[in-house]
């Protein structure tokens, strides 16, 4: 039986964020410098973009349109909204708790705290992370929910994403205490998959995979992925080290599978990922932070379908995809001892069009193309760290100079969710207060930090 909280969650969430994004309306963005990321359209100067019914309707100079809201974008750079191919938003309020000590090791502390998250804590953390992600210029995120402890927890995460307005794929995952022979709640997965789509939210499977190939883990993994495929759901799975080989040997990879990290993959394994048609999400900041080694694009480029991810504001430190772009570019140049090792536009594509392609959404998002969803951001070029690029290619400016502070406007499905550098309809002090209260209560219930046994 569902708890009363299951019914109360939508009402509770409205107390944090009023419903401001349910209706699309027509917008005309005027006089922008435009990076379409569409290979046939290229970059455009002093250009107007018309948005109708949540989609990009027309692109051109001095468009003659009446009865629309107008955004004067002179001195601004218009880009497709950034696409975060992998994150964990439920944990966002725990930012600052992972302090690089034995007791605050990410994986140890996450597991310790996760047991003490109520549905309300999931809701608060997910919403907190989602609005920060939006404010940072990300319009689409793939949220791998790996602390799913019951239907109320799922509903809390779902409602938080809906209320934020972000375009999201919410991945139905497990939790750290689920035993290898125990499947996720496949009946509930089928139930939520049968529900009509709502808002900007879609569903997928946050698959545990097959581990290192132990029989019980392999059997459970097969059962879960077959259930997801019977429902037509996209799938994502963490992998790395010995898990790469086990994943390949399982024969369960396919075009519907997104691999996350794939740390230390050999050239042969990368070739196998490509042969299976699977995609890959790289998260340079968190991969560096936990000591996985240097994330080199050249090590994984042969996969073909690649995108960048944040991997959660708690571990990454912030919901900053610009920082991930910059780190990936700089690491590639440093490792190759060559400034020209990577072109900035290629990096930007991994956070826009190529990221969308890697998660199978490039027909809808990822570039400023007539007919696609109107998911757009405006960067203010009149900032101290920016400069109007004139006739120069602005890609290097975005990759090496832009920060989240330069994001002036965020539009999702034709609806402005940020204007003039301010989130619309979000009480930021209240969101922060509730996040702080939530993590304090979780730490209290957990009895503080975990004990670490001394190494012999």
Instruction: Report the average pLDDT across residues.
Output: 94
The stretches of 5 or more residues where confidence is low (pLDDT under 50) are 1-20
Computed Rg: 21 Å
So what's the oligomer here? single chain
Distance between the termini: 47 Å
Number of helices: 16
Main sheet, how many strands, which sense, barrel?
A: 9 strands, mixed
Strand content: 15-25%
CATH architecture of the domain at 82-358, please?
Alpha-Beta Barrel
Q: What is the helix content?
A: 25-40%
CATH class of the domain at 82-358: Alpha Beta
Shape summary: globular
Class by helix and strand content?
A: alpha/beta
What's the gist of this structure?
The protein is α/β, with parallel strands linked by helices and 456 residues long. The chain has helices spanning 4-14, 106-114, 119-135, 151-164, 186-193, 215-230, 242-249, 267-276, 284-289, 297-300, 313-316, 321-336, 344-349, 353-358, 395-400, 428-445, and strands at 27-35, 43-52, 55-60, 69-72, 76-80, 82-87, 138-145, 167-172, 201-207, 235-240, 257-263, 279-282, 306-308, 376-380, 407-412, 415-419, 422-423.
């Amino acid at each position: 039986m569902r708890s009363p909280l299951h019914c109360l969650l939508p009402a509770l969430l409205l107390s944090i964020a009023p419903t401001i994004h349910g209706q699309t309306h027509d917008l005309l963005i005027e006089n922008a410098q435009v990076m379409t990321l569409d290979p046939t359209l290229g970059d455009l100067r002093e250009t107007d973009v018309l948005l109708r019914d949540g989609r990009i309707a027309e692109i051109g100079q001095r468009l003659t349109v009446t009865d629309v809201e107008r955004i004067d974008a002179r001195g601004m750079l218009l880009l497709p909204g950034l696409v975060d191919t992998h994150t964990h938003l439920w944990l966002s309020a725990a930012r600052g708790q992972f302090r690089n000590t034995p007791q605050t090791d990410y994986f140890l502390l996450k597991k310790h705290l996760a047991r003490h998250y109520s549905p309300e804590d999931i809701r608060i953390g997910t919403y907190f992370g989602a609005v920060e992600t939006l404010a940072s210029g990300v319009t689409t995120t793939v949220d791998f929910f790996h602390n799913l402890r019951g239907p109320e927890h799922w509903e809390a995460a779902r409602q938080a994403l809906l209320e934020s307005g972000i375009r999201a794929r919410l991945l139905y995952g497990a939790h750290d205490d689920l035993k290898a022979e125990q499947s996720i709640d496949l009946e509930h997965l089928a139930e939520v998959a049968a529900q009509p789509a709502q808002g900007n939210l879609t569903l997928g499977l946050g698959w545990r995979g097959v581990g290192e190939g132990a029989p019980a883990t392999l059997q459970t993994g097969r059962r879960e992925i077959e259930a997801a495929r019977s429902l037509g759901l996209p799938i994502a799975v963490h992998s790395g080290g010995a898990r790469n080989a086990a994943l390949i040997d399982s024969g369960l990879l396919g075009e519907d599978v997104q691999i996350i990290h794939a740390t230390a993959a050999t050239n042969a394994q990368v070739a196998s990922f490509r042969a299976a048609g699977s995609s890959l999400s790289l998260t340079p900041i968190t991969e560096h932070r936990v000591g996985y080694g240097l994330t080199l694009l050249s090590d994984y480029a042969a996969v073909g379908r690649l995108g960048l991810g944040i991997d959660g504001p708690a571990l990454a430190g912030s919901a900053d995809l610009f920082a991930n772009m910059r780190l990936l570019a700089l690491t590639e140049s440093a490792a190759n001892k060559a400034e020209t090792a990577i072109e900035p536009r290629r990096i930007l594509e991994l956070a826009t069009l190529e990221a969308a392609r890697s998660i199978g959404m490039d027909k809808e998002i990822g570039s400023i193309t007539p007919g696609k969803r109107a998911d757009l951001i405006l960067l203010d070029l009149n900032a101290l760290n920016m400069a109007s690029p004139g006739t120069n290619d602005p890609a290097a400016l975005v990759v090496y100079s832009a920060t989240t502070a330069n994001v002036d406007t965020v539009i999702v499905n034709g609806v402005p969710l940020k204007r003039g550098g301010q989130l619309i309809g979000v009480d930021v002090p209240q969101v922060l207060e509730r996040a702080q209260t939530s993590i304090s209560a979780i730490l209290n219930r957990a009895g503080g930090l975990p004990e670490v046994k001394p190494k012999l």
